[in-house]
């Protein structure tokens, strides 16, 4: 129904406008009695064989929603009904910010891809904290970043603020220094500033009675030497894992008329590169830290390939936009079939 009826209708309209329209529609739909139960019955699969324990958290299934879809934690309980095992919110910054000028979100239909240059648009971390206080049992990741106006030399303060604000209402943290849409942000991936940032967050975490897992989200555009540095940093700072990968600035092989738009590219063109990055990390790590795969998971087979490459969990974004909640169910069914 989604691919044949709903998607063709939604794709007639501006991507960002339809995103917010969809949010409102899902929220309204869930106000109808028993709709939430019907949706869960349609899409959720419950099985011990799907459960995964990763960095000390037991996930009901390994299929999560990537950051960027529900930045401000406005729809977490409703999205949970579609069968996700966990949801990552953000990227959240200390202060609210509007993000980059519109138009800033583009569908590349021929390529099954999206280009975005949103620029960490969000209502600020404290607005999300208020919403998360009433969340259900869904596992929530908090993806944190710096405000655009904050110079890189002071970025550590922004990350620390967001970490402290979210600590009691999320289950794990993701440090985002890999978005291509905030000027100079990716410079924080360099070895010295990244080590300092992660070490500081680890120190804050160590002071808590119940420390939370801290992960780093990396770009797919890192070369071999940079990936080796990332692995060294993770092992040196003893953070809990990586998310591979964020969006890419590459435009190789694209067919769509929007291919020249600036921003981060997600979707099918990222499938191979993301899997290669996961394989490389798993082959070269010595501490055996977990990796969450994201990037180009458009089919159940894509998901299986990520898991076979060594991923411990996976996340959807563009695949969810192009193929709807049925993709979550088909991935979990494929995992169950593989496990037999």
Automatic annotation (TrEMBL):
GO CC annotation: cytoplasm; plasma membrane
Cofactor(s) required for function per UniProt: FMN
Organism: Psychroflexus salarius
Residues the record marks as active site: 179 (nucleophile)
Taxonomy, superkingdom: Bacteria
Presence of keyword Oxidoreductase: yes
Membrane topology: Peripheral membrane protein
Location of this chain's protein in the cell: Cell membrane; Membrane
Function: Catalyzes the conversion of dihydroorotate to orotate with quinone as electron acceptor.
Binding site residues for FMN: 67-71, 91, 143, 176, 217, 245, 267, 296, 317-318
Gene Ontology molecular function terms on file: dihydroorotate dehydrogenase (quinone) activity
InterPro entries noted in UniProt: Aldolase_TIM (IPR013785), DHO_dehydrogenase (IPR050074), Dihydroorotate_DH_1_2 (IPR012135), Dihydroorotate_DH_2 (IPR005719), Dihydroorotate_DH_cat (IPR005720), Dihydroorotate_DH_CS (IPR001295)
Main localization of the protein described in the UniProt heading: membrane
Keyword Oxidoreductase recorded: yes
Pathway per the UniProt entry: Pyrimidine metabolism; UMP biosynthesis via de novo pathway; orotate from (S)-dihydroorotate (quinone route): step 1/1
UniProt similarity note: Belongs to the dihydroorotate dehydrogenase family. Type 2 subfamily.
Gene: pyrD
Enzyme's top EC category: oxidoreductase
EC annotation from Swiss-Prot or TrEMBL: 1.3.5.2
Domain Dihydroorotate dehydrogenase catalytic intervals: 50-336
Catalysed reactions, semicolon-separated: (S)-dihydroorotate + a quinone = orotate + a quinol
Any single biological process term in GO: 'de novo' UMP biosynthetic process
Cofactor: binding comment: Binds 1 FMN per subunit.
Pfam families, per the entry: DHO_dh
Positions with a binding annotation for substrate: 71, 116-120, 176, 181, 246-247
Protein name as catalogued: Dihydroorotate dehydrogenase (quinone)
Sorted UniProt keywords: Cell membrane, Flavoprotein, FMN, Membrane, Oxidoreductase, Pyrimidine biosynthesis
Subunit architecture: Monomer.
